[in-house]
Design goal:
Layout: H1 30-33, H2 35-42, H3 44-50, H4 56-70, H5 80-92, E1 104-105, H6 110-134, H7 143-166, H8 175-179, H9 182-185, H10 188-194, E2 199-202, E3 209-212, H11 219-239, H12 243-262, H13 266-282, H14 286-301, H15 305-313, H16 319-333, E4 346-347, H17 375-402, H18 408-423, H19 432-448
Antiparallel strand pairs: 1-4, 2-3
Length: 458
């Protein structure tokens, strides 16, 4: 009889350390790798209180640039060369800063140079920001995380809008305002950016009425920014949200209706109408979207807020001013159609008088800066027709390129690009608005790049 051999444990191969390239990659936290974007979107109230607000993107562009330098080689989205040409054209336009075209007045002074340098810094910073966002992978910054961060900024804007309605006189001197010399801080353009205020008091309805602007630069910037942020808020908190987020989204949107109406901002109202129509046409459930829009419109018409809208439409306060400045801007831009004049100019006369300056009999007379009624007109006076064409081509190209993206982020981003082309004739894009436009563009680019989050360099 044979005795079976005792069973022994199977021998295992000795463990060897995997090479670094074969080790599984751990998911990086967005707060660590994408902290400059988080600091901008989530920390915006703090930047506003410090006096930086939208200019914080210039500060945060420094660590973004450092991160990009370490990531070489970099990828760039298709069509981004148009933005680079726009930036190059702005550099060339500095050659005409000292010129005074016919129909305008004023000599080269510190204010004109400061305004030019500030816009240049913003343009460069936004170029860096888009490349930074596009070169982060989805593991480093998931799309939903970025969209929800934009939703948080929407909540911040709603809170600022309610502050402007309830406490329109709220304002304070920011730390940046304290340290800047009066020669710079006293410039009207700079003062609007660094002096935190809850609302602008304007005689839009024939009497003094507050128009919310916190935490952005001015009332029109608040309207433009809210109309873009609400799109991403709906995507992040409703489309990709659970029951609790959706309940919070309904409450937030209801609260937002109050400052939206009190803003007296016709451009914002038109933009919301365009967004609703776009949702009905391109949404996944057009009948449901139409029913929701109808219920919301009915509730609004039955509320006291509808009276304010009717009063605003009956008082087209700014139509005459806009017609004068736009006509004067086109006329002056035609004298330097290729490179423009680097910055705005003050026009002789106004829509009310051929003379200039305020007086007891013409309180609203003044020196309207050319290009102040829309990004398109600003580009015409500062960079000529060539600069305006590059701007239009960049955003129109984005609409054409990403129209086929039928994901929630693709549809939302394409809608923002359409709104950019609408707002360029009524809103000055600088500074916070243009930042949100290009973050939206970066979302589209990242969405088209697939799971890696990196688009193709073409």
């Amino acid at each position: 009889m044979t005795v079976p051999a005792p069973r022994t444990a199977p021998r295992t191969a000795p463990r060897t350390a995997l090479p670094p390239a074969a080790r599984p990659r751990h998911r990086r936290r967005p707060a660590r790798t994408a902290w400059p974007i988080a600091a901008f979107l989530l920390g915006y109230p703090l930047w506003w209180a410090l006096g930086l607000g939208g200019l914080s993107v210039v500060v945060l562009a420094v660590p973004m640039a450092v991160a990009l330098w370490r990531r070489r080689p970099l990828r760039a989205p298709k069509g981004f060369g148009l933005w680079a040409l726009l930036l190059a054209g702005y550099l060339v336009s500095a050659l005409t800063l000292a010129e005074t075209p016919d129909g305008t007045y004023g000599e080269l002074a510190a204010g004109r140079v400061v305004g030019y340098l500030m816009r240049l810094a913003v343009y460069v910073s936004l170029l860096i920001m888009v490349l930074y966002l596009g070169n982060l992978t989805h593991d480093e910054l998931p799309q939903r995380t970025l969209v929800r961060w934009l939703g948080v900024l929407f909540l911040t804007a709603v809170a600022g809008g309610l502050l402007g309605v309830l406490a329109p006189g709220f304002a304070f001197t920011s730390p940046l305002e304290m340290v800047l010399p009066s020669s710079i801080g006293g410039n009207p353009f700079v003062a609007n950016l660094i002096h935190p205020t809850a609302a602008q008091m304007q005689h839009v309805l024939g009497h003094a009425a507050p128009r919310p602007e916190a935490p952005f630069e001015w009332a029109n910037a608040w309207g433009s920014d809210v109309s873009v942020l609400v799109i991403w808020f709906v995507v992040g908190w409703w489309t990709y949200g659970g029951p609790y987020r959706r309940a919070a989204a309904v409450l937030a949107l209801a609260a937002a209706a109050v400052p939206v109406v009190y803003s007296l901002n016709r451009g914002l109202w038109i933009g919301l109408g365009v967004s609703a129509a776009y949702l009905v046409i391109r949404g996944g459930r057009p009948l449901l979207a139409g029913a929701v829009a109808a219920v919301a419109a009915s509730a609004f018409l039955l509320s006291p807020l509808s009276t304010i809208v009717a009063q605003r439409l009956d008082n087209p306060h700014s139509n005459g001013i806009r017609a004068f400045t736009v006509a004067a801007t086109v006329r002056v831009a035609a004298t330097s159609p290729v490179i423009g004049y680097g910055n705005t100019r003050n026009a002789y006369g106004s829509h009310r008088t051929v003379t200039t300056g305020r007086s007891s009999w013409c309180v609203e007379c003044g020196h309207p800066p050319l290009g102040s009624d829309g990004q398109l007109w600003l580009l015409m006076i500062s960079q000529g027709f060539a600069g305006a064409l590059l701007y239009v081509a960049f955003f129109a190209g984005a609409v054409r390129r990403y129209w086929a993206d039928r994901t929630p982020i693709g549809r939302a981003g394409t809608l923002v690009m359409i709104l950019v082309l609408l707002y360029m004739v009524v809103y000055d894009g600088l500074i916070s608005a243009l930042t949100l436009y290009l973050i939206s563009f970066a979302l589209l680019w990242r969405n088209a790049g697939g799971a890696s989050g990196l688009g193709e360099a073409r």
